[in-house]
Amino acid sequence: MSSRVLLLSCFALVFTLSHSLVAQTCNPGSADPSVTICMPQSGDALDSPIHLQIATNDSSQVDRLQVWYNGVKRWENPVSSADFFLATGNGGPYRITALAHDVSGRWFQSSVNINVIGQIYVCTQPQTANQSPRSVVICQPADGEIHFSPVHLTWNALAAPGEQPTSVQIFLDGKSVFQTPPALSNGFPLPATSLPMAIGRHRISIQAYDSQGAFKSTIYMNVNKIYQGCAPPTVLPDMVVCSLTDGQTVNGVITVKAAAAASTGILRFVEILDGVQVLNTSHAWLDNGLSVAPGPHTLILKATTNSGAHLQKTFNVTSQ
Q: What is the CATH number of domain 131-226?
């Protein structure tokens, strides 16, 4: 995990040197009503997350602004303009549409076509360029983002001058679900993690600590579907398995879908089939299939929290 973060950090540095973004004012068009996308521009080849600058012109009041990627709504907020970063999730061609609504009931839109050439999973320099001491910038997800679960989170915590944060903690709907330390990589707090979330609207707060106490940032986002694993347990620490029951009969493949959660986060998730470890992941979810011969089998799922607690569920399965 540590080498992955280091690699991504180096990639982010290369990005900031070769793809610098200059802050600018997004001026709306003269048509009434109209939406103007100042950034990105059609034909751009960019790394994700995409820097979006959007303005509207309307004789009525704009009460809602949406962003759609390739026909899928990915962001919505009750604003008339926006300047933020929104990840794509994949590379390739993207049609970005900004859709506005006003109090008179009118909908109007504008679109640009770009090409996504890479993905960055940590904060980039343009996202943190104007960050103040004793603040947290949540780089992903964006406030108002609509995304599937698991959700990738990355942040930058800046302590008081001359200090480093002593700890960073993630709260999901008021409940602690990750904390550094003890979640460390070679002694350094991780600047990113991915967490399973239930379908619905969520309040995400990332809180850091220094010698003066706590400071935090909060965003709201919507999870629209479970893409991998399950919705996480509601009581922590615990593990949820949504694809298996003890004593189940299968046809040659054991489908494993699970999620684990704890106040400090999940360090490791392991699958043991008939006494042999077949999977070891740092994710807080499982989503895979295990091919098995006809007959009885025992599958053990083990999760270890970042504070060292152990969670386990055992399933006796028969394959036809």
A: 2.60.40.10
